[in-house]
Structures are given as structure tokens and as C-alpha cells.
């Protein structure tokens, strides 16, 4: 419409020029200057024609620009995908820069409203434009960013800066995109991880003229990744620790098992349900079980059945086990028992507490068995050596004093008597002298045996040294003592020896003393008996005398 108006105006202008020329011509005729008026007419006609041509060219150019702008806007509309056909038609119908400005503003609004960060860099990596969303991410304004002399130094964390520059330059040089993750650096040291995509930008000639960066916030994902990595590291540490403990525990167990297998003590672990959980080699040896016997999981009743035939007194032993198991004590007293094969064993038991729960919970019981047969034999030998005369095997003087004190204390308590016979051989030295020391020994051994056969079970017979002997009689009475002494005198007198084919004999002198009749303590009783014995010697030997009768 405006174009038609322009054409009309140009025609009117030409007609105006023609009228003006006619008027000038009339004035020229009037003034007699026809030639000058004709020239003015021609100039006016030419001016009108020139004006018409100029206006026509302007009209055509405006039409061309209008079409180009409509096409440009349509392309832009295709680029953002948001302009419909009617809008295009409207745009095409519109003319002038105002239309373009409107569309650019819309596009700018779209670009500035994106959630991620969009930025345009020039070929020297100078920041040309950045979306306002940068402020949400790291707290910096777009103006602050674009004003920066080195925007990458401002925006990118120093650890990622070098890499970022290299990647951006590669985009420009290679004309190919790059995708990577980096940290943006905000005000007050705020850091935000982003996944960024760098793409080359081209001018109208298709040359790379800059680079566009699109970045999306992945801080949440990175934090989750860090947490995950920390958790994984924690788990790895815990796993390593557990493996270390397990390895050390296995080593400890191996050492313990090796130790338990070389010791002579039999060891048996039972759990709370009275089932076997561990035993060592010595335990099988002690209980005469085969080395390949498998007892793991076997119940206590089955074990009792297995060992019952070995025990000298099985019922008594099982009663002892029940007593230990039901007792409150943590560690039982050592218990000695005998096997039918003559061996002597001991056991002791302890509750095993769990390492967990502060050791408050019992998880079973350990039994320790020891074969003490040899120990007992050695001990018996030592006792015998200490208490007995090695030649005659009679109790010696040491034991005599112990028994004397014990019997006197007992007699004192019960108000009974204790009798003491002091025996000294007559003419023993001549046997030694005539037949030798060995013959003398034989006499002593024979005499000990014969006199031992004369005394009763509750009476104690001692060799006190050399050819001296003694007999202690508990609950003694004077007449019984005299009777016993007489039997001994006669028994010794009746002994007959032959050495080197020659006969030998001997007698004995005895002294009798009674507690408390003749003495009130041991030493005094010995002195009284000795005194009576010497009286027997003095009165002709081979007889007995009672204390207090001289
Ligand atoms: N064979 C032997 N002789 C011993 C042993 N112990 C002591 N004698 C001897 O026993 C003798 C004891 O001496 P006496 O009591 O004077 O001998 P005895 O001829 O009986 O004298 P009386 O008592 O006066 O009759 C000594 O000769 C000792 O050497 C021994 O273990 N074996």
C-alpha cells in the first residue's frame, strides 16, 4: 500500500513539474523570451522524470529488503522451532527493522532463559556473551564475566583451567566439538562441577569464528560420586582390615593348634550343647583312641560310653563330671582317677567365655587331662626314699618320729594309750665280723620280714638305725604289749642262718614303754623304752623289760 502511494506521489511530482514549466513558458512569451522558457520546460520535464525513476528504484529496493527480512525471520523461526506459519506470514507481511528486532528479542529471551549455561567465545577465547544462568550456578553476573580480561581464568577452577584452554583451542583449530567435565569457580570460592560441550561457530564464509559452550550443572551427581567413592574406599579399608584380622586370627589358630598338639596334656573343648568342638592329639593318646578318630560334634554321652570300659570306677568318674558341669566354679579342682590298665589320670575343667559381650557369656567348657602315672611313681619313690630304710624297706627314724607324734596326739585326744617297743639285736656285730657285712645285711632283711609278720596291721614297725628297731602300737594295753614283745623275742631267737656252711643265730633285747603311763611326750617315751631295753641287755639279753619296773 505504501509502495502504491509512493508511485502516485512521483507521478504527481512530474505533473507538478510540467505545470511549473508551462507557467514559466507563459511568463517567457509574455516577456518575449520564448527560447529561455522552452529550456526551463525541458529541465522541469526531466526533473519530474528523474524524480519518478528514483522513487521507483526506492520502492523496488524496499520490496527486496522486505522479502529478504521475511526469509531471514522464517529461517530464525525454523532455528528455534517456535515460529508457526501464520507468524511467518505475519513477519513477511511486516516490514522494517522493528519486526526483526522483535524476533531477535524473542530469541534472546529464549537463550537467556535456558537452564544450563550458554556462552559464546570469540576466536581469541574472549567472552562475547553468556547466559544469566551463570549467576545461579556460581554467583557471577554475565556483565562481570564479559568484562573480564581473561574469562576462563575468572570462570574456571585453577585445576581445570589449563585443560579447558587446551580443549577450547582444539575446538577452534580442529573445527570439531569437545565434551568434558570441569569445575567452575564462583565468588567466595564456590565451586560447581559442570559437564560442558564446546562447539565451533562459523561465519558466513563457513570459517571458524569462535566457539560456543553449553554447560550443565552436575554438582549433585559429582557429590554423589564423591560420596560413593568415599563409601567404596571405606568399604575397602574395612575389607582390608577384616582380611588382616582374619589372617592374623588364622595364624594364631595355627600356632595354638601346633602348640596344643605337641604338649602332653589332653585337651577337649565342648560347646554349650555338650558337643565336642576341638581336641588335640594327646587327648586321643590318653584315652587310647585311634589317631584318626573323629570326635568333632560328638555328644558327651557318646564320649562317656567310649571311655567307660577304660575306667576303674566309671560310675564314680561320671558322677564327678556331672558335679563339675553343674558347679558354679569357673575352674574345677584337679581330680585324680585310675584306669584299669594301671595308669593314673587327672582332669580339670574350666568354663570358656566368649570374647564378645565382655566375656560374660559362657560358650562351652574345656577339659584338660594329664597322665600322672609316672609322676606318681616318682613321687612314691621319693617318699619311700625319704621315709623308708632302703635295705629292709621298713619305715625309718624320720617317719618313726612323725608317727609317734601323730599317735600321741590322737591318743591324748581320745584318752587311750600308745605303746613303744625298743628292739636292739644282741651279738649282731660278731655276725658282721665273722661272715661279712653282706651276711649282716641278710640278717637284717630276714629279721625285718619275720618280725613284720608278727606285728598286726595297725602296728607300725621301724628300723631306727644299725641293729635298732622300734614298734609303735596304737590303743595299746600293757599285757598286750608284753605279749607282742615276747612273740618278737621268740621269733628272733628262732631265726636260723647259714653263712659259708656255718650256722649263725642272734637274739634281741626289748624295752616296753607306755604313753601316758611311763612318759607324757615322745622323747620321754623313747627314753623310757630305751631304758627298759638296756635293762633287758643287762639282765641277760634275749628278753623284754617294761619301763618303770626297775
Ligand atoms: N651289715 C650291716 N651292719 C650294720 C648296719 N648298720 C650297722 N651295722 C653294724 O651293726 C653293729 C652294731 O653294733 P653293736 O650294737 O655294738 O653290735 P652288737 O654286737 O649287737 O652289740 P650289742 O648290742 O652290745 O650286743 C655295728 O658293727 C655296725 O657296723 C647295716 O646296715 N648292715
From TrEMBL:
A Pfam family it matches: PAS_3
Gene3D superfamilies: 3.30.70.270, PAS domain
SMART domains per the UniProt record, alphabetical: GGDEF (SM00267), PAS (SM00091)
Alphabetized PROSITE patterns for the sequence: GGDEF, PAC
InterPro entries reported in the protein's UniProt record: Biofilm_reg_signaling, GGDEF_dom, Nucleotide_cyclase, PAS, PAS-assoc_C, PAS-like_dom_sf, PAS_4, PAS_fold_3
Residue ranges constituting the GGDEF domain according to the UniProt record: 416-549
Superkingdom: Bacteria
GO MF terms, alphabetically ordered: catalytic activity
Domain PAC: 178-230
Protein name listed in UniProt: Sensor domain-containing diguanylate cyclase
Amino acid at each position: 500500500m505504501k509502495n502504491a502511494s509512493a508511485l502516485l506521489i512521483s507521478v504527481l511530482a512530474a505533473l507538478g513539474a510540467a505545470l511549473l514549466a508551462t507557467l514559466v513558458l507563459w511568463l517567457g512569451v509574455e516577456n518575449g523570451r520564448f527560447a529561455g522558457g522552452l529550456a526551463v520546460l525541458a529541465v522541469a520535464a526531466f526533473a519530474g522524470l528523474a524524480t519518478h525513476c528514483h522513487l521507483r528504484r526506492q520502492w523496488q529496493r524496499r520490496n527486496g529488503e522486505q522479502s529478504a527480512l521475511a526469509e531471514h525471520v522464517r529461517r530464525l523461526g525454523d532455528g528455534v522451532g517456535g515460529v508457526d506459519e501464520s507468524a511467518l506470514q505475519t513477519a513477511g507481511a511486516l516490514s522494517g527493522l522493528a519486526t526483526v528486532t522483535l524476533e531477535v528479542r524473542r530469541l534472546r529471551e529464549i537463550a537467556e532463559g535456558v537452564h544450563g549455561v550458554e556462552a559464546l567465545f570469540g576466536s581469541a577465547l574472549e567472552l562475547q556473551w553468556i547466559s544469566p544462568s551463570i549467576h545461579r550456578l556460581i554467583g557471577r553476573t554475565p556483565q562481570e564475566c564479559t568484562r573480564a580480561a581473561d574469562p576462563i581464568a575468572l570462570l574456571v577452577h585453577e585445576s581445570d583451567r589449563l585443560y579447558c584452554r587446551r580443549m577450547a583451542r582444539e575446538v577452534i583449530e580442529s573445527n570439531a566439538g569437545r565434551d568434558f567435565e570441569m569445575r567452575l569457580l564462583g565468588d567466595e570460592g564456590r565451586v560447581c562441577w559442570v559437564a560442558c560441550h564446546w562447539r565451533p561457530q562459523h561465519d558466513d564464509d563457513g570459517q571458524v569464528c569462535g566457539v560456543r559452550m553449553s554447560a550443565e550443572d552436575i554438582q549433585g551427581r559429582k557429590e554423589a560420586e564423591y560420596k560413593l567413592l568415599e563409601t567404596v574406599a571405606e568399604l575397602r579399608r574395612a575389607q582390608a582390615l577384616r582380611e588382616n584380622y582374619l589372617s592374623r586370627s588364622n595364624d594364631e589358630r595355627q600356632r595354638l593348634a601346633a602348640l596344643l598338639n605337641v604338649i602332653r596334656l589332653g585337651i577337649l573343648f565342648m560347646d554349650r550343647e555338650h558337643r565336642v568342638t576341638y581336641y588335640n592329639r594327646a587327648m586321643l593318646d590318653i584315652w587310647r583312641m585311634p589317631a584318626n578318630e573323629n570326635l568333632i560334634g560328638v555328644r558327651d554321652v557318646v564320649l562317656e560310653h567310649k571311655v567307660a570300659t577304660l575306667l576303674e570306677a566309671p560310675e564314680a568318674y561320671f558322677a564327678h563330671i556331672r558335679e563339675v558341669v553343674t558347679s558354679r566354679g569357673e575352674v574345677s579342682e584337679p581330680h585324680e582317677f585310675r584306669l584299669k590298665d594301671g595308669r593314673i589320670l587327672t582332669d580339670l575343667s574350666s568354663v570358656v567365655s566368649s570374647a564378645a559381650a565382655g566375656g560374660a557369656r559362657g560358650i562351652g567348657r574345656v577339659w584338660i587331662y594329664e597322665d600322672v602315672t609316672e609322676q606318681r611313681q616318682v613321687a612314691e619313690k621319693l617318699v619311700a626314699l625319704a621315709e623308708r630304710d632302703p635295705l629292709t624297706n621298713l619305715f625309718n627314724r624320720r617317719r618313726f618320729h612323725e608317727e609317734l607324734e601323730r599317735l600321741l596326739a590322737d591318743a591324748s585326744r581320745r584318752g587311750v594309750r600308745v605303746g613303744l617297743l625298743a628292739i636292739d639285736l644282741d651279738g649282731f656285730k660278731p655276725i658282721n665280723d665273722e661272715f661279712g657285712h653282706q651276711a649282716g645285711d641278710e640278717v637284717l632283711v630276714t629279721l625285718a620280714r619275720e618280725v613284720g609278720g608278727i606285728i598286726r596291721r595297725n602296728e607300725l614297725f621301724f628300723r631306727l638305725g644299725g641293729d635298732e628297731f622300734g614298734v609303735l602300737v596304737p590303743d595299746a594295753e600293757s599285757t598286750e604289749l608284753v605279749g607282742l614283745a615276747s612273740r618278737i623275742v621268740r621269733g628272733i631267737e628262732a631265726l636260723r642262718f647259714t653263712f659259708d656252711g656255718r650256722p649263725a643265730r642272734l637274739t634281741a633285747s626289748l624295752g616296753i614303754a607306755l604313753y601316758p603311763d611311763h612318759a607324757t611326750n615322745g622323747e620321754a617315751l623313747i627314753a623310757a623304752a630305751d631304758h627298759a631295753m638296756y635293762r633287758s641287755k643287762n639282765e641277760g639279753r634275749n628278753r623284754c623289760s617294761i619301763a618303770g619296773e626297775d
